[in-house]
Recover the amino acids of this structure.
């Protein structure tokens, strides 16, 4: 297959990591507004209410709320074909259960989308990127409660109607998939996904299974609704997945690796195959968990199938095995691969992994796939000359794009877009740091939120511009 001339080159950002303005224009408090900055290797601290003297990075982000025109102009200068943004639910329904939406929030996103369209950039809109009004957690228990699905659909409907004819590509959820009852859960992952700290949960396994099911169901219902409102809508969901290798060819280890790679695919199965997978229901039963699949849920799975899949890819890992004492991989658990290098934050760099996953997923579902996130978090240095030579970032992206190209041109995977995380430096989701930088554009701010907020082009800026201009043909530094 040839690389399409309409291939969507661009980048991805998320509201709580870039907008700032956390209490402007009647925005409500969102779950990430209560999480502090972490430090190398140390998790972010999660608060139950705002406390004086604590630094909450979502409160300032990179002030995209006031800089979006300038930032979009820079993306346009790079030739972006697409930008994935997220809509912060708490700007639209500040408490989540409000009857009427907040018009000021709606206006902001209308202007943002118009600005993208004016610059010929296709908007790709995520409806839930770790951004839930905190009130829904406190009053209803977050996704453990089916009422929250109704509030989510109310929010989705508002956005589908508001942006009808302007937005074609929707993402129902970003990475709902890291909370499986069978794996080691962490506070930060359950919190960013559902606003709940793992260690605080009663009946932990059942709660995680219920959340996983309810969010999957909510996605299918949103897909059905999106199609009803506009049959031009292309409905997708984004998963953060990684290939897990066996430590050796002992069949037990090979099997473990398969099961760990496949861990989160039950949700993708449910969203693509028209039913919630029986193997998962049976697995839950065996460990004493119960999921109630109603008749109306069954219709939702049948009628809410995805049009495309979004894939976030950063790293791979090695399956844990009996007696393993290897170095833990820093991303979704598992062990580090001794054949591969890691980033400064311990994420294993494995370009071939992206080809593996593209093939695996495409052959399983036959749906078009968009790479919705891929990138390297690194420390950048401004030289005296003012230049920022981020060759390491260019190397990472180049090696991954090469594998994406092979997937398309040699393996015939229908991959229709590649978005980097993130085209501009922003707040890290897992650490809250500003110094974990991903962008082609440097933002002059530090981990304390201090700095001029000035935007500076890194070396990778011109590199990516050339990649886009040549439709991925010229990847040379
Ligand atoms: C993805 C998330 O999983 O990883 C993004 O969708 C996040 O929100 C990205 O920023 C990179 O992770 P981090 O912790 O380095 O920001």
């Amino acid at each position: 297959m040839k690389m399409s001339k309409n291939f969507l080159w661009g980048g991805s950002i998320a509201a709580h990591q870039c907008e700032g303005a956390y209490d402007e224009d009647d925005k409500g408090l969102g779950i990430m507004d209560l999480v502090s900055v972490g430090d190398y290797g140390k998790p972010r601290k999660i608060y139950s209410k705002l406390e004086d003297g604590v630094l909450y990075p979502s409160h300032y982000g990179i002030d995209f709320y006031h800089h979006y025109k300038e930032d979009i102009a820079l993306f346009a200068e790079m030739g972006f074909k697409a930008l994935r943004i997220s809509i912060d639910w708490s700007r639209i329904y500040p408490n989540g259960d409000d009857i009427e939406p907040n018009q000021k929030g709606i206006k902001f996103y209308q202007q943002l989308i118009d600005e993208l369209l004016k610059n010929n950039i296709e908007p790709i809109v995520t409806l839930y990127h770790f951004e839930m009004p905190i009130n829904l957690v406190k009053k209803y228990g977050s996704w453990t409660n089916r009422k929250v699905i109704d509030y989510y659909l109310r929010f989705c409907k508002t956005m589908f109607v508001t942006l009808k004819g302007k937005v074609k590509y929707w993402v129902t959820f970003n990475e709902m998939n890291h909370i499986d009852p069978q794996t080691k859960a962490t506070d930060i992952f359950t919190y960013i996904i559902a606003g709940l700290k793992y260690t605080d949960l009663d009946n932990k396994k059942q709660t995680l299974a219920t959340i996983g099911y309810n969010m999957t169901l909510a996605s299918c219902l949103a897909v059905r609704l999106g199609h009803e409102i506009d049959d031009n809508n292309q409905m997708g969901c984004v998963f953060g997945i990684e290939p897990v290798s066996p430590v050796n060819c002992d069949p037990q280890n090979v099997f473990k690796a398969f099961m760990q790679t496949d861990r989160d695919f039950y949700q993708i199965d449910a969203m693509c195959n028209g039913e919630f997978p029986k193997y998962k229901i049976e697995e839950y039963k065996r460990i004493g968990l119960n999921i109630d699949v109603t008749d109306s849920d069954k219709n939702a799975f049948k009628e809410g199938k995805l049009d495309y899949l979004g894939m976030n890819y950063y790293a791979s890992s090695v399956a844990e095995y009996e007696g393993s004492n290897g170095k833990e991989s820093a991303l979704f658990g598992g062990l580090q691969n001794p054949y591969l290098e890691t980033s400064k934050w311990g994420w294993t760099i494995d370009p071939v992994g992206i080809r593996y996953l593209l093939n695996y997923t495409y052959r399983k579902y036959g749906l078009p796939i968009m790479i919705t996130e891929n990138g390297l978090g690194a420390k950048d240095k401004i030289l005296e000359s003012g230049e920022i030579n981020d060759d390491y970032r260019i190397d990472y992206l180049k090696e991954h794009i090469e594998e994406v190209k092979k997937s398309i041109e040699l393996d015939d995977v229908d991959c229709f877009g590649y978005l980097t995380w993130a085209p501009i430096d922003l707040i890290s989701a897992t650490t809250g740091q500003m110094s974990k930088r991903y962008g082609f554009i440097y933002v002059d701010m530090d981990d304390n939120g201090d700095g001029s907020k000035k935007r500076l082009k890194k070396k990778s800026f011109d590199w990516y511009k050339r990649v886009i201009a040549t439709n991925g043909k010229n990847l040379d530094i």
Remarks:
- The mean pLDDT is 95.
- The radius of gyration is 21 Å.
- The pocket of 6-O-phosphono-beta-D-glucopyranose is lined by residues 14, 17, 174-175, 240, 312, 373, 377, 421, 428-431, 436 (CB under 6 Å).
- The chain has one domain: 8-469.
